[in-house]
Amino acid sequence: QVQLVESGGGLVQPGESLRLSCAASGSIFSIVAMAWYRQAPGKQRELVASIPRRGSTNYADSVKGRFTISTDTAKNTVYLQMNSLKPEDTAVYYCNIQTPWANYWGQGTQVTVYS
Questions:
Q1: Most buried by CB count within 10 Å: which residue of 29, 83, 92, 110?
Q2: Are 13 and 24 in contact (CB under 8 A)?
Q3: Model confidence over 39-76: pLDDT tens digits?
Q4: Please, how many CA atoms are within 13 Å of residue 66, restricted to the half-sphere of its CB?
């Protein structure tokens, strides 16, 4: 049974930073990509950043230059370093791991940026 456990969310002021972590437990084979999504109240879930096993990272335009996605493949862990946070970054953040056979999701972690 694969589980993704996120941590690192919280309440911060504009301009501050947070680092999200997502650790996968259980056996995951043939990871195609790891990613972070977010969903703000009343909005659809959107891709924030992704890192494929082969290829370059991809970021939403709204976070380019501020967020950085990275992985520790030995630990099946994906990180999201978020700098210069803005109120519009407020959302529940979900990690995602894709394989050819399954799409795994974490339970979500709340990030709130208040001014």
A1: 92
A2: no
A3: 999 999 999 999 998 889 999 999 999 999 999 988 88
A4: 16
